[in-house]
Amino acid sequence: MGLISKFIIMLVANGLGLYAATVFIDGFTVPLTLNGLIIVSAVLTLINIFVRPIIKFVLSPVIILTLGLASILVNLAALYLLDYLLASVTISGILPLIYATLVLGLVNFVIHLK
Description:
Helix content is about 75%, strand content about 5%. The protein has helices at about 5-25, 35-60, 60-65, 70-85, 95-110; strands at about 30, 90. It has a two-stranded antiparallel sheet with strand order 1-2.
């Protein structure tokens, strides 16, 4: 699978996950217009491509010690960075951040099943 097709699949999966998180989680707000959702999904995809591997590398000892459970912290950091970078994304509190991370992870897991 090429790099562009992986990017498009990640973009769609992140868009669906962000939409589901916005609909089902109180305190997590993303613009639900098509343009707004595409922009937020693209920024999250770029964070996942470029920043997430660096965070995983830095936290790799913790991830190994917790048998992979600390990878949730990496996803939390990526979503928090998205909230920090874009004013249109609003996460009000730690519980909406955790729930949105779990919803995004679940949607990405289902999309990437073969």
